[in-house]
Amino acid sequence: MISLTALNTLRLPAYAESLVAVRQSSGLLAISESLGDRPRVILGGGSNLVLQGIADHPLDAVVLHNQLRGIVRLPEQDGLTRIRCAGGESWHAFVMWTLAQGLAGLENLALIPGTVGAAPIQNIGAYGVELADRIEAVHAWDFASRDHVMFARDDCRFGYRHSLFKEPEVQGPWNAPRFLVTAVDFSLWPAARSPVVTGYAGLSERLGQMGIQGRPQPLQIAHAVISLRREKLPDPEDLANAGSFFKNPVVPEGLASALKAQHPGLPVYSQADGMKLSAGWLIEAAGLKGVRKGGAGVYDRHALVLVNHGTASGHDLLGLARDIQQAVMSRFGVWLETEPQILPPLHAG
Ligand SMILES: Cc1cc2nc3c(=O)[nH]c(=O)nc-3n(C[C@H](O)[C@H](O)[C@H](O)COP(=O)(O)OP(=O)(O)OC[C@H]3O[C@@H](n4cnc5c(N)ncnc54)[C@H](O)[C@@H]3O)c2cc1C
194 CB under 6 A from ligand 1? Predict the structure, then answer.
């Protein structure tokens, strides 16, 4: 039996029957053949997962651990540099590598944990930029056809923390995911011509505090983002967590206006499909910032982050999440959806 505790950033005690390291995309056919119909799950950096399998109930699936490595330059197009990055590379290390090459576009996404291959799954985003704004294509192994396939960006159905890889009709059940992302193609700008996105969550103020006047360099933006993130979010190495535990809810305009009238401090952002509320604000206003339940807790500096103080199980953490969902529902009439993937999912028992 394999312990998964060190392989998830919530450091939840979880086990699996076996783990297979995926090191070469050319080896995926042999892996598929040897797996046959056995249940499988895909693991990257484990930074967006709640693992429920405990020692006497290990996860009933072979864990495929993405360790595909390599970064290559593709031919330039329309003055943009095209890069293909293998799915098992560290996301943050890749962002810093692009900046060191004088390439811009990913600086706002610095310091997001996890792998490049997982980045398209929930269309990672931060500080006004989403992965979908910067990529060209996603390459994947298809366990159904047992072949390599490619999705152009516009075929990925990217949305807020969403892509087609999260749709059960496409990706299948939790223990038989159809596509394993092997690589992602990016189109990046030369630093001098890149779009600058600094109007979000204190970024331009931080650049000002850093003494940066005028148009900031992409690397300066990355450093500002890194310093803001270090202030707001716990480093999983110091305090186990999976980043934002809930998505910001998108609600009808009527409900948003009614809530805003009652709670003038509530941040509300207009979206194409409704009004986005701040989940962290709702949790804090429900009086839950810093609360603890067993070893699980709400981070005392950012209410959107749930943490493992050391002894929490997946069950404890999900119990706390449920308490938060119910408290916010009864206070504001809004149900918070969890962001990390729960394995096995709650309905799977
Ligand atoms: C401190 C902290 C801060 C964070 N900040 C942000 C943020 O600002 N913005 C944001 O969007 N997210 C954030 N996250 C969440 C997380 O970092 C991202 O979702 C990241 O992309 C997850 O990568 P991973 O490799 O760890 O994926 P994992 O946790 O290993 O997997 C997540 C899901 O993707 C699936 N998956 C993983 N790799 C593949 C693959 N190659 N092919 C198919 N499916 C795959 C898994 O099966 C699972 O369902 C944060 C997390 C932490 C701990």
Answer: no
Ligand 1 binding pocket includes 61 (Cβ within 6 Å): no
Beta strand 15-22 with 49-51: parallel, antiparallel or unpaired? Answer: unpaired
Kindly state the greatest CA–CA separation across the chain.
60
pTM score, two decimals?
0.96
Residue 337 CA to ligand 1 centre (angstroms): 16
What is the CB neighbour count within 10 angstroms for residue 19? 16
**Secondary-structure class of domain 71-232 per CATH:** alpha beta
Assign residue 211 a region (left: φ > 0; alpha: ψ between -120 and 50; beta: otherwise). Answer: left
| CATH pick for 240-348 out of 3.40.50.11500, 3.90.78.10, 3.30.365.10, 3.90.1530.30 | 3.90.78.10
Catalytic choice (11, 134, 161, 206): 161
Q: Which of 47, 244, 278, 313 is catalytic?
A: 244
The pLDDT assigned to 116 comes to 98
161 is catalytic: yes
Q: Tell me the average confidence (pLDDT) per consecutive run of 10 residues in the chain, 349 residues long.
A: 95 94 97 96 97 84 97 94 98 98 97 98 95 97 98 96 96 97 97 90 93 94 97 95 96 96 94 92 97 95 96 94 98 96 82
Pocket test for ligand 1, best of 19, 41, 48 (most atoms within 8 A of CB): 48
Tell me if residue 244 is catalytic: yes
Residue pointed to by tokens 């535990």: 245
Look-up of token digits 């490049």? 116
The pLDDT, as a whole number, for residue 200 is 82
